[in-house]
Give the backbone structure.
Amino acid sequence: MQEKKLPAPCPFIQYEEKKHGTSTRLWQGCPTIAVTKGGKLFAGWYSGGSREPSLLNYNLLVESKDGGLTWSTPLLVQEGRPNDNIQVLDIQLWMDPLARLWICWQQRDWKTRLDKPNHFSSWAVVCENPDADTLSFSAPKYIGDGFLRCQPTVLSDGRWLFCAYNWLHGDYAYYETCDNGTSFHPCHAGKRLGKATFDETMILERHNGSLWMLARTTGVGKLAETTSVDGGKTWSDAIPSAIPTPSTRFFLKRLKSGRVLLVNNNSSTARNNMTAFLSEDDGATWSHSLLLDSRDTSYPDVAEDNDGTLYMVWDRGRTTFKEILITRICEADIIAGKTVNPASFQCHIISKAPVASSLPNADEIIDNDKRWLEEINKTAYP
Protein backbone atom coordinates (compact mmCIF):
# COMPACT_ATOMS: atom_id res chain seq x y z
CA MET A 1 0.00 0.00 0.00
CA GLN A 2 1.33 3.41 -0.95
CA GLU A 3 2.15 5.56 2.07
CA LYS A 4 -0.11 8.58 2.46
CA LYS A 5 1.56 11.87 1.57
CA LEU A 6 1.17 14.30 4.44
CA PRO A 7 1.11 18.10 4.25
CA ALA A 8 4.05 19.86 5.83
CA PRO A 9 3.40 21.10 9.41
CA CYS A 10 3.01 24.82 9.92
CA PRO A 11 6.03 26.46 11.60
CA PHE A 12 6.46 27.89 15.09
CA ILE A 13 8.29 31.21 15.06
CA GLN A 14 9.36 33.96 17.43
CA TYR A 15 6.78 36.53 18.45
CA GLU A 16 7.08 39.96 16.79
CA GLU A 17 5.24 42.82 18.46
CA LYS A 18 4.79 44.79 15.23
CA LYS A 19 3.36 41.75 13.47
CA HIS A 20 1.50 39.83 16.19
CA GLY A 21 0.85 42.35 18.99
CA THR A 22 -2.60 43.25 20.27
CA SER A 23 -2.48 46.56 18.40
CA THR A 24 -2.58 44.62 15.09
CA ARG A 25 -5.43 42.21 15.89
CA LEU A 26 -8.78 42.72 14.16
CA TRP A 27 -10.18 39.78 16.14
CA GLN A 28 -9.07 37.07 18.58
CA GLY A 29 -10.70 34.04 20.16
CA CYS A 30 -11.05 30.29 20.77
CA PRO A 31 -8.78 30.05 23.84
CA THR A 32 -7.38 26.95 25.54
CA ILE A 33 -5.61 26.34 28.86
CA ALA A 34 -3.35 23.82 30.61
CA VAL A 35 -1.75 23.64 34.06
CA THR A 36 1.49 21.76 34.72
CA LYS A 37 2.37 19.49 37.62
CA GLY A 38 4.39 22.37 39.06
CA GLY A 39 1.48 24.82 38.79
CA LYS A 40 2.53 26.82 35.73
CA LEU A 41 -0.32 27.87 33.47
CA PHE A 42 -0.23 27.95 29.69
CA ALA A 43 -2.92 29.56 27.55
CA GLY A 44 -3.33 29.78 23.80
CA TRP A 45 -5.73 31.25 21.25
CA TYR A 46 -5.65 32.42 17.66
CA SER A 47 -5.93 35.63 15.68
CA GLY A 48 -4.51 37.18 12.51
CA GLY A 49 -5.99 38.53 9.31
CA SER A 50 -9.40 40.17 9.26
CA ARG A 51 -11.41 37.18 10.42
CA GLU A 52 -11.59 33.43 10.76
CA PRO A 53 -10.82 31.96 8.28
CA SER A 54 -7.81 33.77 6.85
CA LEU A 55 -4.48 32.65 5.48
CA LEU A 56 -2.99 35.22 7.86
CA ASN A 57 -4.35 33.48 10.98
CA TYR A 58 -1.81 32.52 13.65
CA ASN A 59 -1.75 30.73 17.02
CA LEU A 60 -0.30 32.21 20.23
CA LEU A 61 1.09 30.61 23.41
CA VAL A 62 1.50 32.52 26.71
CA GLU A 63 2.28 31.48 30.29
CA SER A 64 1.46 32.54 33.85
CA LYS A 65 3.47 31.72 36.96
CA ASP A 66 1.14 33.37 39.49
CA GLY A 67 -2.09 31.46 39.06
CA GLY A 68 -3.43 33.43 36.12
CA LEU A 69 -3.11 36.96 37.52
CA THR A 70 -0.41 38.07 35.09
CA TRP A 71 0.66 36.65 31.73
CA SER A 72 3.77 36.72 29.60
CA THR A 73 4.09 38.10 26.11
CA PRO A 74 3.67 35.24 23.61
CA LEU A 75 6.36 32.58 23.98
CA LEU A 76 5.63 31.18 20.54
CA VAL A 77 3.64 32.08 17.46
CA GLN A 78 2.57 29.61 14.82
CA GLU A 79 1.79 30.87 11.35
CA GLY A 80 0.21 29.19 8.35
CA ARG A 81 1.78 28.92 4.92
CA PRO A 82 -0.10 31.46 2.78
CA ASN A 83 1.93 30.76 -0.35
CA ASP A 84 0.69 27.15 -0.22
CA ASN A 85 -2.90 28.12 0.71
CA ILE A 86 -2.44 26.40 4.10
CA GLN A 87 -4.24 28.02 7.03
CA VAL A 88 -3.33 27.35 10.68
CA LEU A 89 -6.09 27.58 13.27
CA ASP A 90 -7.41 26.52 16.68
CA ILE A 91 -4.58 25.72 19.05
CA GLN A 92 -5.54 23.15 21.73
CA LEU A 93 -3.49 22.53 24.89
CA TRP A 94 -3.56 19.35 26.98
CA MET A 95 -1.55 17.82 29.83
CA ASP A 96 -1.36 14.05 29.40
CA PRO A 97 -1.10 11.46 32.22
CA LEU A 98 2.70 11.48 31.82
CA ALA A 99 2.76 15.22 32.77
CA ARG A 100 3.69 16.19 29.21
CA LEU A 101 2.26 19.30 27.55
CA TRP A 102 0.65 18.78 24.17
CA ILE A 103 0.22 21.70 21.78
CA CYS A 104 -2.27 20.54 19.18
CA TRP A 105 -3.34 22.59 16.17
CA GLN A 106 -5.37 22.33 13.01
CA GLN A 107 -4.31 22.94 9.41
CA ARG A 108 -6.68 23.69 6.57
CA ASP A 109 -5.64 23.03 3.00
CA TRP A 110 -7.68 25.35 0.82
CA LYS A 111 -6.51 23.53 -2.29
CA THR A 112 -8.48 20.49 -1.13
CA ARG A 113 -12.27 20.38 -1.10
CA LEU A 114 -14.15 20.37 2.20
CA ASP A 115 -15.53 16.88 1.55
CA LYS A 116 -12.11 15.33 0.90
CA PRO A 117 -9.44 13.98 3.28
CA ASN A 118 -6.66 16.42 4.13
CA HIS A 119 -8.90 19.48 3.92
CA PHE A 120 -8.43 19.51 7.70
CA SER A 121 -5.57 17.80 9.50
CA SER A 122 -4.74 17.62 13.22
CA TRP A 123 -1.17 17.95 14.50
CA ALA A 124 0.73 18.20 17.79
CA VAL A 125 4.10 18.82 19.38
CA VAL A 126 4.88 17.49 22.87
CA CYS A 127 6.94 19.09 25.66
CA GLU A 128 8.40 16.52 28.08
CA ASN A 129 9.16 19.07 30.82
CA PRO A 130 6.77 22.04 30.65
CA ASP A 131 7.92 23.28 34.08
CA ALA A 132 11.43 23.93 32.74
CA ASP A 133 12.58 27.51 32.25
CA THR A 134 13.35 26.76 28.60
CA LEU A 135 10.75 24.74 26.73
CA SER A 136 11.76 22.02 24.31
CA PHE A 137 9.29 20.33 21.98
CA SER A 138 9.20 17.15 19.94
CA ALA A 139 9.07 17.10 16.18
CA PRO A 140 5.53 17.75 14.85
CA LYS A 141 3.28 14.70 15.17
CA TYR A 142 0.48 14.02 12.67
CA ILE A 143 -2.66 12.83 14.49
CA GLY A 144 -4.88 12.38 11.45
CA ASP A 145 -7.45 13.95 9.15
CA GLY A 146 -10.08 16.02 10.88
CA PHE A 147 -10.48 18.89 13.31
CA LEU A 148 -9.42 18.45 16.96
CA ARG A 149 -10.78 21.25 19.13
CA CYS A 150 -11.41 19.64 22.53
CA GLN A 151 -9.20 18.03 25.16
CA PRO A 152 -8.72 14.26 24.83
CA THR A 153 -10.26 11.74 27.25
CA VAL A 154 -8.14 9.22 29.15
CA LEU A 155 -9.94 5.90 29.75
CA SER A 156 -9.44 3.56 32.70
CA ASP A 157 -7.90 0.93 30.40
CA GLY A 158 -5.16 3.36 29.32
CA ARG A 159 -6.55 4.42 25.95
CA TRP A 160 -6.57 8.10 25.01
CA LEU A 161 -9.39 9.37 22.80
CA PHE A 162 -8.78 12.43 20.60
CA CYS A 163 -12.10 13.75 19.24
CA ALA A 164 -11.12 15.06 15.80
CA TYR A 165 -14.23 15.43 13.64
CA ASN A 166 -14.66 15.64 9.87
CA TRP A 167 -17.38 15.74 7.22
CA LEU A 168 -16.35 12.62 5.31
CA HIS A 169 -19.18 10.41 6.59
CA GLY A 170 -22.36 10.54 8.66
CA ASP A 171 -20.85 9.49 11.99
CA TYR A 172 -19.07 11.35 14.75
CA ALA A 173 -15.35 10.60 14.59
CA TYR A 174 -12.39 10.32 16.94
CA TYR A 175 -8.90 8.86 17.16
CA GLU A 176 -7.70 6.29 19.66
CA THR A 177 -4.14 5.78 20.87
CA CYS A 178 -3.07 2.81 22.99
CA ASP A 179 0.63 3.71 23.17
CA ASN A 180 0.65 7.15 24.82
CA GLY A 181 0.31 9.06 21.58
CA THR A 182 2.87 7.25 19.44
CA SER A 183 0.25 6.06 16.95
CA PHE A 184 -3.41 6.89 16.31
CA HIS A 185 -6.27 4.74 15.03
CA PRO A 186 -9.38 6.35 13.46
CA CYS A 187 -12.72 5.38 15.02
CA HIS A 188 -16.40 6.00 14.33
CA ALA A 189 -18.94 6.91 17.03
CA GLY A 190 -22.71 7.31 16.68
CA LYS A 191 -24.62 8.63 13.70
CA ARG A 192 -24.67 12.42 13.66
CA LEU A 193 -27.70 14.37 14.81
CA GLY A 194 -28.67 16.80 12.04
CA LYS A 195 -26.17 18.59 9.85
CA ALA A 196 -23.85 20.49 12.15
CA THR A 197 -21.50 23.03 10.60
CA PHE A 198 -19.08 22.10 13.35
CA ASP A 199 -19.52 19.22 15.77
CA GLU A 200 -16.93 19.46 18.50
CA THR A 201 -17.34 16.42 20.73
CA MET A 202 -16.14 15.31 24.16
CA ILE A 203 -16.32 11.86 25.76
CA LEU A 204 -16.91 10.91 29.41
CA GLU A 205 -16.25 7.43 30.79
CA ARG A 206 -19.05 6.73 33.26
CA HIS A 207 -18.68 4.67 36.44
CA ASN A 208 -20.55 1.78 34.81
CA GLY A 209 -17.92 1.63 32.07
CA SER A 210 -20.05 3.12 29.32
CA LEU A 211 -18.77 5.96 27.15
CA TRP A 212 -20.96 9.07 26.84
CA MET A 213 -20.23 11.44 23.97
CA LEU A 214 -21.73 14.92 23.80
CA ALA A 215 -21.58 16.88 20.55
CA ARG A 216 -22.24 20.40 19.34
CA THR A 217 -25.28 20.72 17.10
CA THR A 218 -26.72 23.29 14.69
CA GLY A 219 -30.38 24.25 14.76
CA VAL A 220 -31.28 21.72 17.46
CA GLY A 221 -30.92 23.86 20.59
CA LYS A 222 -29.53 20.90 22.57
CA LEU A 223 -26.24 19.08 22.67
CA ALA A 224 -26.37 15.71 20.94
CA GLU A 225 -25.56 12.56 22.91
CA THR A 226 -24.49 9.07 21.86
CA THR A 227 -23.42 6.15 24.06
CA SER A 228 -21.24 3.07 23.80
CA VAL A 229 -21.55 0.17 26.26
CA ASP A 230 -18.76 -1.94 24.75
CA GLY A 231 -15.74 0.34 25.03
CA GLY A 232 -16.33 2.15 21.74
CA LYS A 233 -16.84 -0.84 19.44
CA THR A 234 -20.42 0.23 18.74
CA TRP A 235 -22.35 3.42 19.47
CA SER A 236 -26.01 4.42 19.57
CA ASP A 237 -27.35 6.90 17.04
CA ALA A 238 -27.16 10.43 18.44
CA ILE A 239 -30.26 11.99 19.98
CA PRO A 240 -30.85 15.38 21.60
CA SER A 241 -29.66 15.53 25.20
CA ALA A 242 -31.29 17.61 27.93
CA ILE A 243 -28.43 20.13 27.79
CA PRO A 244 -29.16 23.40 25.91
CA THR A 245 -26.66 24.79 23.41
CA PRO A 246 -26.71 27.76 21.01
CA SER A 247 -24.37 25.82 18.65
CA THR A 248 -20.95 26.38 20.17
CA ARG A 249 -18.19 24.51 21.94
CA PHE A 250 -18.59 23.23 25.51
CA PHE A 251 -16.39 21.46 28.08
CA LEU A 252 -16.98 18.10 29.82
CA LYS A 253 -14.67 16.23 32.20
CA ARG A 254 -14.58 14.13 35.35
CA LEU A 255 -12.74 15.98 38.12
CA LYS A 256 -10.37 14.53 40.69
CA SER A 257 -13.22 14.53 43.21
CA GLY A 258 -15.22 12.17 41.00
CA ARG A 259 -17.83 14.77 40.10
CA VAL A 260 -18.44 15.64 36.46
CA LEU A 261 -17.90 19.22 35.30
CA LEU A 262 -19.78 20.78 32.40
CA VAL A 263 -19.09 24.34 31.23
CA ASN A 264 -21.51 25.59 28.63
CA ASN A 265 -23.44 28.59 27.35
CA ASN A 266 -26.67 27.93 29.25
CA SER A 267 -28.94 28.95 26.38
CA SER A 268 -30.46 27.29 23.32
CA THR A 269 -30.26 30.44 21.18
CA ALA A 270 -27.44 32.80 22.20
CA ARG A 271 -23.79 32.59 23.21
CA ASN A 272 -24.29 34.03 26.66
CA ASN A 273 -24.72 32.85 30.27
CA MET A 274 -21.46 30.89 30.45
CA THR A 275 -22.16 28.52 33.35
CA ALA A 276 -20.30 25.82 35.27
CA PHE A 277 -22.34 22.76 36.30
CA LEU A 278 -21.44 19.86 38.59
CA SER A 279 -23.03 16.42 38.50
CA GLU A 280 -22.94 13.82 41.27
CA ASP A 281 -24.49 11.10 39.07
CA ASP A 282 -22.40 10.93 35.90
CA GLY A 283 -24.31 13.67 34.09
CA ALA A 284 -27.83 12.31 34.65
CA THR A 285 -28.61 15.50 36.60
CA TRP A 286 -26.72 18.70 37.32
CA SER A 287 -27.28 19.51 40.98
CA HIS A 288 -24.90 22.48 41.31
CA SER A 289 -24.27 25.47 39.05
CA LEU A 290 -22.48 28.82 39.01
CA LEU A 291 -23.06 31.57 36.45
CA LEU A 292 -19.60 32.58 35.25
CA ASP A 293 -20.33 35.30 32.68
CA SER A 294 -23.72 36.50 31.40
CA ARG A 295 -22.24 38.38 28.42
CA ASP A 296 -21.40 37.45 24.80
CA THR A 297 -18.93 34.60 25.36
CA SER A 298 -17.86 31.33 23.75
CA TYR A 299 -15.43 28.41 23.60
CA PRO A 300 -14.69 27.44 27.22
CA ASP A 301 -11.71 25.29 28.15
CA VAL A 302 -10.72 24.12 31.64
CA ALA A 303 -7.63 22.87 33.49
CA GLU A 304 -7.60 21.40 37.01
CA ASP A 305 -4.46 21.62 39.14
CA ASN A 306 -3.17 19.23 41.81
CA ASP A 307 -5.30 20.70 44.62
CA GLY A 308 -8.52 20.86 42.59
CA THR A 309 -8.39 24.52 41.58
CA LEU A 310 -10.18 25.02 38.26
CA TYR A 311 -8.82 27.42 35.66
CA MET A 312 -11.36 28.30 32.97
CA VAL A 313 -10.88 30.38 29.82
CA TRP A 314 -13.25 31.64 27.14
CA ASP A 315 -13.49 34.53 24.69
CA ARG A 316 -15.78 37.55 24.79
CA GLY A 317 -16.81 39.32 21.58
CA ARG A 318 -14.19 37.95 19.16
CA THR A 319 -14.57 40.87 16.74
CA THR A 320 -15.93 43.50 19.16
CA PHE A 321 -14.61 43.37 22.73
CA LYS A 322 -11.78 41.01 21.66
CA GLU A 323 -11.18 39.70 25.17
CA ILE A 324 -9.55 36.44 26.29
CA LEU A 325 -10.76 35.81 29.85
CA ILE A 326 -9.76 33.53 32.72
CA THR A 327 -11.73 32.49 35.80
CA ARG A 328 -10.17 30.70 38.79
CA ILE A 329 -12.64 28.87 41.02
CA CYS A 330 -13.05 25.62 42.95
CA GLU A 331 -15.85 23.09 43.32
CA ALA A 332 -16.98 24.73 46.56
CA ASP A 333 -17.80 27.89 44.59
CA ILE A 334 -19.97 25.95 42.13
CA ILE A 335 -21.71 24.05 44.93
CA ALA A 336 -22.44 27.31 46.75
CA GLY A 337 -23.61 29.01 43.55
CA LYS A 338 -21.32 31.94 44.32
CA THR A 339 -17.66 32.66 44.95
CA VAL A 340 -16.80 31.56 48.51
CA ASN A 341 -13.09 30.80 48.16
CA PRO A 342 -10.95 33.91 48.85
CA ALA A 343 -8.48 32.81 46.17
CA SER A 344 -11.15 32.59 43.46
CA PHE A 345 -11.84 35.24 40.83
CA GLN A 346 -13.97 35.57 37.71
CA CYS A 347 -13.56 37.17 34.27
CA HIS A 348 -9.96 38.36 34.58
CA ILE A 349 -8.57 39.60 31.24
CA ILE A 350 -5.61 37.70 29.79
CA SER A 351 -5.59 39.70 26.56
CA LYS A 352 -7.64 42.49 25.00
CA ALA A 353 -7.22 43.99 21.53
CA PRO A 354 -8.38 47.52 20.58
CA VAL A 355 -11.40 48.30 18.42
CA ALA A 356 -10.91 47.90 14.67
CA SER A 357 -11.18 51.61 13.90
CA SER A 358 -7.98 52.29 15.84
CA LEU A 359 -5.88 49.66 14.04
CA PRO A 360 -3.42 50.60 11.30
CA ASN A 361 -3.97 49.07 7.84
CA ALA A 362 -7.30 47.52 8.92
CA ASP A 363 -8.99 48.29 5.59
CA GLU A 364 -6.09 46.80 3.64
CA ILE A 365 -6.18 43.56 5.67
CA ILE A 366 -9.96 43.25 5.22
CA ASP A 367 -9.75 43.84 1.45
CA ASN A 368 -6.93 41.31 1.02
CA ASP A 369 -8.82 38.65 2.96
CA LYS A 370 -12.00 39.33 0.99
CA ARG A 371 -10.23 38.86 -2.34
CA TRP A 372 -8.53 35.68 -1.14
CA LEU A 373 -11.75 34.17 0.19
CA GLU A 374 -13.65 34.91 -3.03
CA GLU A 375 -10.94 33.23 -5.07
CA ILE A 376 -10.46 30.19 -2.86
CA ASN A 377 -14.20 29.51 -2.50
CA LYS A 378 -14.31 28.71 -6.22
CA THR A 379 -12.42 25.47 -5.60
CA ALA A 380 -12.47 24.68 -1.86
CA TYR A 381 -16.12 23.79 -1.37
CA PRO A 382 -18.27 21.12 -3.01
